């Protein structure tokens, strides 16, 4: 079972990667067999390369992504991160959404990500 410190540092690295646009930091937080379902209800991304493709798709659409990390709640081997994201898109639109990412952490790496959110165009 991961310690609270391991969960905190792993989720923090994941969140910082988005806010900093750090493509190298993002996969460092993920296990090799990670499963990402973001948003919940969409197709599963399985294995470390699939979430990396999610990242590339997001940043291909955006000039900038600002992530406001609001809070983290932990229990057992998991955490839920409350956040707000503002995307400045290449088409001139700005999308703002709030959400919760739910993580399962195994051996200090994210093994499961489930994303829940609501988009507001601004």
Secondary structure: elements and pairs:
Elements: H1 4-20, H2 25-28, E1 30-37, E2 45-46, H3 49-61, E3 62-75, E4 78-89, E5 94-106, E6 109-121
Parallel strand pairs: 1-6
Antiparallel strand pairs: 1-2, 3-4, 4-5, 5-6
What's the quick description here?
It contains 3 helices and 6 strands; from the N terminus they run H-H-E-E-H-E-E-E-E.
Count of DSSP strands: 6
Could you say which structural class the secondary elements and strand pairing correspond to? alpha+beta
- What's the overall average pLDDT, rounded? 91
* Unreliable spans: none
Strand order of the largest sheet: 2-1-6-5-4-3
**Separation of termini?**
41 Å
CATH hierarchy, class: Alpha Beta
Binned, the helix content reads 25-40%
Rg, Å, rounded: 14 Å
Q: What is the count of structural domains? A: 1
Number of helices: 3
* Major β-sheet profile: 6 strands, mixed
Question: What is the fold-level CATH name, i.e. the topology?
Answer: Nuclear Transport Factor 2, Chain: A
**Given the C-alpha coordinates, what overall shape results?**
globular
How do the SSEs run, as a string of H and E? HHEEHEEEE
Gross CATH architecture: Roll
Walk me through the structure:
The protein has 122 residues and is an alpha+beta fold. It has one domain (4-121): Nuclear Transport Factor 2, Chain: A (Roll), CATH 3.10.450. Helices cover 28% and strands 51% of the residues. Strands 2-1-6-5-4-3 form a 6-stranded mixed sheet. It is globular, with a radius of gyration of 14 Å. The mean pLDDT is 91.
């Amino acid at each position: 079972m991961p310690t609270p410190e391991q969960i905190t540092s792993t989720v923090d690295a994941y969140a910082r990667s988005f806010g900093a646009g750090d493509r190298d930091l993002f996969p460092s937080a993920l296990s090799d067999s990670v499963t990402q379902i973001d948003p919940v209800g969409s197709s599963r991304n399985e294995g470390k390369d699939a979430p990396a493709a999610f990242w590339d798709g997001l940043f291909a659409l955006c000039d900038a992504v600002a992530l406001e990390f609001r809070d983290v709640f932990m229990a057992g081997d998991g955490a839920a991160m409350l956040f707000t994201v503002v995307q400045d898109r290449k088409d001139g639109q700005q999308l703002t959404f709030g959400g919760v990412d739910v993580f399962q952490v195994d051996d200090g790496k994210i093994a499961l990500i489930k994303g829940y959110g609501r988009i507001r165009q601004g």
